[in-house]
Amino acid sequence: MACGLKASVAEVARTMHREGLVVGSAGNVSARAEGDSAMHITPTGVLYADMTVDHVVTVTFEGDPIEGEGLPSSESLLHGAIYAARPDVQAVVHAHPVHASAMAVRQEAIPAFVDEQVVYLGGAVAVSDYAPAASEELADNAVEGLGERRAVLLANHGTLTVGRDPEDALEMTRLTERLAQIWLLASGRPGAQHLPRDIVEAEIELYRMMQSEGDV
Ligand SMILES: [Zn+2]
Prior knowledge:
Elements: H1 2-18, E1 28-32, E2 38-41, E3 57-60, E4 65-67, H2 76-85, E5 91-95, H3 98-106, H4 115-121, E6 127-128, H5 136-146, E7 151-154, E8 158-163, H6 166-186, H7 197-212
Parallel strand pairs: 6-7
Antiparallel strand pairs: 1-2, 1-5, 2-3, 3-4, 5-8, 7-8
Helix pairs in contact: 2-5, 3-6, 4-7
The structure holds zinc ion (ZN).
């Protein structure tokens, strides 16, 4: 089973690269390891196009190696902090998609403007406070920015999304990128509207219900 999870981490890394959500070996993918405070994560310095299950390493939430020969991702602290703070999260994807990263550079949250966004991601996508890549501060800020939701923009950097498995977390990256693209198009002209506040509140309740039932 652990091997299946590692294979899924490698596959999602390759898909993320193929879809242009990252270039080279930027970004990273992980899955919570079963039974203890550990995760399977993509290594640093391996091009995603060449990533196989054998490259995926197992580390503690602090990034200390448990299994595997590669050097774990430089963003291991970021992934570990999310697993420690959110017991419901089974997988994390960090990427640099163009439109969502543009919003992150503007340090502008993606407001709640379509229903699927609130139901799947839990509401507006916040921007976490800026901190340098690979720092403990980045990890802390990301946890705070993510809150109970499933996506956050990392200021001047990229995206972080979570899910019940790596493919699900990747789907949330795709959704976040799509929302950013729509919002950048819509907000460039006068008249772009957010969803009404009462609708957002009702949909957040639905999101929480689905989360607690494991449906999201
Ligand atoms: Zn990054």
